[in-house]
Amino acid sequence: MATKKMMLYINGSERMLVCDPETDTLADVIRRLGLTGTKVGCRVGQCGICSVILDGAVVRSCVKKMKNIKDGSKITTIEGIGAPTNLHPLQLAWIIHGGVQCGFCSPGFIVSAKALLDTNLNPTRQEVREWFRKNHNACRCTGYKPLVDAVMAAAKVMRGEMTMEDLNYKIPADGRIYGTGYPRPAALAKVTGTCDYGDDIGMKMPDALHLAVVLPGVSHARLLSIDTSEAEKMPGVEKVITHKDVKGNNRIMWPCGHILAKADGFDRPILAEDMIYHRGDVIAVVAARTRAEARAAAKKVKFELEQLPEYLNILETMAADAPQVNKEYPNIYIEAPLIKGQDTRKIIEKTPYVVEGSFYSQRQPHLVLEPDTDQAYVDADGVLTIHCKSLFLHINIFTLAPGVGHPAEKIRIIENPTGASFGYSLSPYMPGIVSVATLATGKPVTITLSYEEHQHITGKRAPSFSNARLACDEKGKITALEYEIAYDEGAYTESADVIAQKGLRFVGAPYKIPNAIGLCKTVISNNAVSTAYKGFGSPQCYTCSEQLMDMMAEKIGMDPLEFRYINVYREGDESINGNKFSVYPMPQILDRLRPYYKEALERAKRESTPERKRGVGIACGEYNVTSAPNDHTEIILGLNPDGTVTHYNNWQDQGQGADAGAVVHTYEALRPLGLRPDQIKLCMNDTALAPMHGPSAGSRSHYMIGNATIHAAEQLMNAMRKPDGTYRTYDEMVAEGIPTKYTGVFDTTGMTSDLDPNTGQGSPTAEYTFGTFLAEVEVEVATGKTKVLRMKCIADVGVIGNIVNVDGQALGGMMQGIGMALSEDYDDFKKHTNLAGSGFTFIDATPDNLTTEYIETPRPSGPHGSSGCAELFQSSPHVAVINAINNACGVRIYELPARPEKVKAALEAKARGEEIKPRKYYMGGDLHEKIDYIKANPFTPKN
Ligand code: FES
Ligand code: FES
């Protein structure tokens, strides 16, 4: 190491520093100086998270080596742009326009935008977008549109056409903030770079050891031996941890709660023992003084493997002669039926129109910009304290305790400010790794995965294979549906029980289908573990049924919208699970869409050329609100001595705006007290400080916490109310011995019922959301490249609690839907190890013309009429794109994603008079035989 002193002008002041010009990057140096507003994501120059201004130009500091920086250079980081008490217009605009969701990208974008406005104070939207494209600024949450809105608004302020006050949020005259764009309290720290995320917390933690993981590099093998001796001798190494050092049973306890499961859910080891079942199985963990030392030593851990055949496609593991992959349970370990109405064979025989198809949806990676990061330590009271991205804090205590060997009552889990998860952090796997490491070393530990490690270790959206047949009568009314869907659950059974339900609920939604049979299977492979991802389990269903809807419309010569219109649920209709709904907004949603759709069709016709064909597609979607039967949540409201109220909750914030949600619910529920919104304080996401909420999943949080908040607010106000109707102060309450804290509870017991294991009939969740997506695309015939030109969502998620938050979920959901349709995948273990290689949806693949409209039908059981919202927006937008491709150029892409080469091949086949379509997938047997067997031999639960 050649250490060198340098002088740099950072944020206007001269800074002396010492670095290694060969190995240090600019990001390393400025973060070591404490300027951790500059975040680091991909570390390879793809995401722009680490952007700073160097001598007037935007640079990605993670790939800028210090040897290439001149002494005396001028550097501006996010901290030099504005401070919490003195915001730059860009920072305020970012807050107001919803530029901050997880906020991990915000510093990089704001720095980049500042450099643009320094040279062009009057840019067009296109110039802003082009600037962000050129500077590689990536965002996974927002759909980019709010970011461009923010730059345009800030530029207006900077040009003197608007004041900061004009730009700022104002409480409406009637004092009601519910439904407005009330800004997120946490956004201030995120736009100023003062918010510490996991990696920042880890590097500032005293005496922390840095961890590095050892991965097998193969997907299926016997692990014969591990030799840590050489690694242990490496500089700075404190310990090399293997499964032998784990104090507990070394299992993530994730009970496979499905009543039909043939696995118990205790199959995922924290550290590999004798088998490797996928590339993300961690063989050993090195704990060392620095990250570099830990990584260097990890390369010295030797292990011997006996390579086994890798089963990377569940068509292989479902094959009749497939060997059993995991010795504990069969390859198809959940097989759950749906049976509704009459025998579909007889109905279909008599029905004039039948379409059928087979469809595949890919292993979509979450592609968060912050790779997984976790910290752990044992505090002075012997409490194992874990900082992580968990979206299910309390339950993770119980899923970890036996595995790591620490009593549950002595485990505390804290959610760090999180650079998004979109669902993958449902898994307690990485929290398990840091727990084991801190217990084995007796020291605080921290880890931030490289992007490649993150890709291999974390869960993904389960790929799906489906075969389906849809029938309808002469009038276009659906008469029957038959389908089977198999989810590739990867190497372990984690969360398979949940997805097995989804496959029985969303194929064919939101349409009235009187007769249906279905089989949903979860199947093992040697792939990444399947986990929650926004829309969990439903995009796979819509990949099948929303394409079938278009195929049927074409077959009977009806317009796809009008075919859907006559079949969507109307008042009193039942889903295929036999449940009724509290609201029936689908006809209204399609009525609202119709004029836009017609306009889009005309535009496509007008602008289509033989070389660039344009088309329009739609897809409908429905998603549940609440996660399972008998859902439960608790929060606490506490009156403080200064008259403010604190909301204690574990509404895990993955970027969706839990903080703003908690404020608007509390403010609305406590309106009689006349508080200002800033008098509502938050204490969130720490199991030691707030009660159990349950997961931030299933679009449940706004609904569940809102109802619990109303319950707590009623109790608090009743306690504060004096006989004359005025309210006691805190001091008066204390003087009279009246408690100042109240627990609000909401529970859906009695509102829901589990799906019947023999028929799939039931109503497992309390509420639903509905919507439709309209996509306009252009297909370049020569290359097959598809560009989405516009996308619109019309949705009903009940009364909106915060319009900026809901819009943010919708825009981000549509963007990730475009990614699912066209490019994103984790399938190739060499290529899909980074953002760009995995087909990340950058700004140039996301149209600026992303729009939303809402029909706000109040939900009778919802807080203030609201439900939840997030997941609907990623239910079926991808199918709107796929249907639009078909409308543009007459080819249907049955197996996603619709990469250019696939579309091109389909076009070429069409020119030859052929069609590329998958043969019916074999899924372990004949659908009718299985259903007949289940009917004859119903499952009887044992006591
Ligand atoms: S470009 Fe530097 S972290 Fe991604
Ligand atoms: S807000 Fe941009 S990555 Fe989350």
TrEMBL record:
The UniProt entry, under SMART domains, shows: Ald_Xan_dh_C
Q: Name one GO molecular function term.
A: 2 iron, 2 sulfur cluster binding
Keyword list (alphabetical) reads: Iron, Metal-binding, Molybdenum, Oxidoreductase
EC number(s) reported in the record: 1.2.99.7
Top-level taxon in the UniProt lineage: Bacteria
Recorded hits in Pfam families, A to Z, give:
Ald_Xan_dh_C (PF01315), Fer2 (PF00111), Fer2_2 (PF01799), MoCoBD_1 (PF02738), MoCoBD_2 (PF20256)
Limits of the 2Fe-2S ferredoxin-type domain? 4-81
The answer on whether this UniProt entry bears the keyword Oxidoreductase reads yes
- The keyword Cell cycle appears for this protein: no
Q: Which InterPro entries match?
A: 2Fe-2S-bd (IPR002888), 2Fe-2S-bd_dom_sf (IPR036884), 2Fe-2S_ferredoxin-like_sf (IPR036010), 2Fe-2S_ferredoxin-type (IPR001041), 2Fe2S_fd_BS (IPR006058), Ald_Oxase/Xan_DH_a/b (IPR000674), Ald_Oxase/Xan_DH_a/b_sf (IPR036856), Ald_Oxase/xanthine_DH-like (IPR016208)
Gene3D superfamilies from the UniProt entry? 3.10.20.30, [2Fe-2S]-binding domain, Aldehyde oxidase/xanthine dehydrogenase, a/b hammerhead, Aldehyde oxidase/xanthine dehydrogenase, molybdopterin binding domain
Q: Which family does it belong to?
A: Belongs to the xanthine dehydrogenase family.
PANTHER family given for it? ALDEHYDE OXIDASE 1-RELATED, XANTHINE DEHYDROGENASE
- What NCBIfam families does the record point to? pterin_aldehy
What is the designated name of this protein? Answer: Aldehyde oxidoreductase
Q: Which taxonomic lineage is given here? A: Bacteria, Bacillati, Bacillota, Clostridia, Eubacteriales
Gene that encodes the chain: mop_4
